[in-house]
Amino acid sequence: MYDDGKLDEDDITDLDRLKTDLTDAYAKGKMSEQHYANLKSEISVLYEEIYKKKIDSLNGKHSRGIIMDKVKDEIKDAYAKGKMSEQHYKLLYEKISDSKNNQESINKMATSSFGSIIGSPIKTK
Fold first, then answer.
1. Which of 13, 29, 81, 103 has the most C-beta neighbours closer than 10 Å?
2. Are 92 and 55 in contact (CB under 8 A)?
């Protein structure tokens, strides 16, 4: 998974495969319930890290809203498929909400600052 030394969205496919292999091994009785739970938790952390980086990489991008909605859908899908814990899902959901709120605040400030420049014509006598 770490061929390039980084954990990023390119690793999701490998992580999906690892999760499937883990589930299969547990179903075949090749590991204890505790070992399975620990590994499942570690995989959940890795999914969270990938999606967190993906969210952070969108800050300041123009088409960010559309892409952020796509990431949000990916996260919901990952949670629904049991790829991550409820705790990690909630943390990512909060991060997306905070990120959207921060971007909206920045957009409002930029619009109001720009609007006050445009909206204040210089009067001449």
1. 103
2. yes
